[in-house]
Amino acid sequence: MGIAERYRQVADEVAATARACGRAPEEVRLVAVSKTVGPDEVAAAVAAGARDFGENRPDQLMAKAPAFPEARWHFIGNIQSRRIPDIVANASLIHSLHEERHAQKIDRAAAALGKVQDVLVEVNVSGEASKSGVAPADALALVRAAGALSHVRVRGLMTMAPQGDPAAAEATFKGLADLAREVRAQLPADAAADFTELSMGMSEDWRCAVACGATIVRIGRAIFSESFEE
């Protein structure tokens, strides 16, 4: 099975899982995480219908985004302050904001380009030391601070679940969904209307994430790796 077939299979499974959870398929966006592959593999996914791709390194984002202008490019990696202008120039959505100083620099970079940059606030729901993100208790403050900037629009929250532990993953996803509801309830009406995204779930655990309310799932190996086994 090639990349095109795997992409279509995953896309069909995401839609079917959404329906099984009582949700409309269009409520869940599939981001094909292309960080391990080159332009030929991206082209194969585009030909199969993929329109959202995720990269975790600015250099790869800069190389691929201009080559596929029909796609939406998501930055899902750790933000390095000096690379923020490169990220903002190429990303439709930044998933990994967790520092106010980075929000301020994103605002300046977006202003220079005449755009409003959509971002997600990354939250470390599981509390694992190896994971980035603000503590849940600090999420509202960062959402408010970033949302006050004129060239930043906070679209929601993102998290990563512990690997290899389905119960912990479910608790993490439910925790993010609950936190998002709490944050949204405390935002002004216009900001709350934009605050609709929950980016959570990857190749191993996206089904659970969809059941818990994910609006974006980030899937790479199940699409681009021949050796991926669930």
TrEMBL record:
The entry's keywords: Pyridoxal phosphate
Q: Where is the Alanine racemase N-terminal domain?
A: 23-224
> Its family?
Belongs to the pyridoxal phosphate-binding protein YggS/PROSC family.
Q: What is this protein called?
A: Pyridoxal phosphate homeostasis protein
Question: According to the entry, what is the taxonomic lineage of the organism?
Answer: Bacteria, Bacillati, Actinomycetota, Coriobacteriia, Eggerthellales
What does the record give as the function of this protein? Answer: Pyridoxal 5'-phosphate (PLP)-binding protein, which is involved in PLP homeostasis.
Q: Which residues carry this modification: N6-(pyridoxal phosphate)lysine?
A: 35
Transferase listed as a keyword? no
- Asked whether the UniProt record includes Phosphoprotein among its keywords, one would answer no
- Pfam families membership: Ala_racemase_N
